Amino acid sequence: MLKNYVSIFLLLLCVGFVSNSQAQQVLSKLEIKAKEVYTVNPDNILLVDTLIMHDKAVIQFNAGTPAFVGVNTAFVSRDCKFMLKGKNGLLKENDPESLEGKDGSSIEIDIHFEKLGSLFVDTRGGNGAKGVDGNYEVQSTKKTDADGSFKSLAPAKAAVAGGKGGKGGQGGNVSFAYSSNGFIPRFNQYRKQHAIIIVTQGGKGGKPGNMGKFEGPGGPNGQIKLINKNLKLDPSL
Questions:
Q1: Which of UniProt's keywords are assigned here (predicted)?
Q2: How far apart are the first and last CA of the chain?
Q3: Does a structural domain hold residue 133?
Q4: pTM of the entire predicted model
């Protein structure tokens, strides 16, 4: 039954977070084959009754947009991924902003695991690109033929310092509410059974261009919030 996340979806609809046109994203079942990549719609909202991810299956979200995932029942195999990493910067002529790494997307997850091999959630920021290369000073030179006649003249060029590297993108925040049936998920414990690895590091700053001095600044890390829905509050408190 989709009742839990239909209600969440209706709440989001009421507050204007989603539009009526996005209602078809509520899925009764989503099965992703081994090594297959499933790309979420541009709004980054995924509501599923039953989610089945085979080994190394990937759910790819769109960079730059906050994401929401609600799953009533999940069967997750080994080395599966939720990918929200920002893109790395690129060196483009006359476009200094292209050097900057893009921010990773933040995500809110509400999920119940019936099975869990390992799940990797990646909201890291993209790395900054290397700065524009500089050059040494070039002296004016005159070339002549053997008989002394003029042949060519190479103009002088002033030295140009290398450009600063691009800054790294910010890591996205992760809010992870979870429950499980008969096992305890292990967070950020690599090579463990039932592992959930969450990485939210900011992107690395780009190196300076040749003859440059300044690296780009690294991006700030995203924050992680974990909510264990298996724990029940004492009603007497």
A1: Signal
A2: 32
A3: yes
A4: 0.78
